[in-house]
């Protein structure tokens, strides 16, 4: 039985709703517990008075604490995370109020700390990424770029149209690469000696399939541009001939 597009869309919406149901519930529950915890702390610390700012910050602190892991945690853990986040936010706000700032000296210290963190992050990131690039490689292959990192690295299922498009592109590029290799193999030896060799020789490094694919893409785009220029030139010549004929008549 063939299903309609509306039925398929409805099933997709229901599946996504089930996936989103539990994380949303945990996030909502954690924020509620954070608000209750901030409410109790305000009642105890401010002598039975309620600080609205403290209450709002407690809710925000619990949301910040649970948002990043709401999809992989459990319900009881979400309650605990919301309570701890509200406590950290509450006592952090009280500590900041007691510090009352430190003038330009403290601003200078914070600026130096920010500069040190930036330098350390840049140097460390460069070293780590360079080591990855030299060992296992940093960039995805052309095939992985077409399919997407979610499919290749995280096993996320692709939509059928995206998968078909990637397969068709790879198939066309492979056919172009094979035709290019055959055409280069039929070139006389004299031309290969007098021209720059495209095939790897003993003195030139071997090129992988990705280089050949990218080269074919560039050549095809150049050929299309040349064809368009020829069409424009032919149309201009035709117009000139027609104008000259009309003038003679």
Automatic annotation (TrEMBL):
Membrane topology: Multi-pass membrane protein
Main localization, broad class: membrane
Domain Ammonium transporter AmtB-like: residue ranges: 29-93, 101-155
Basic and acidic residues bias: start-end ranges: 199-210
Protein location: Membrane
Highest taxon in the source lineage: Eukaryota
Transmembrane segments: 28-46, 58-84, 104-129
Matches recorded under PANTHER family: AMMONIUM TRANSPORTER
Name listed for the protein in its UniProt record: Amt
Organism: Mytilus edulis (Blue mussel)
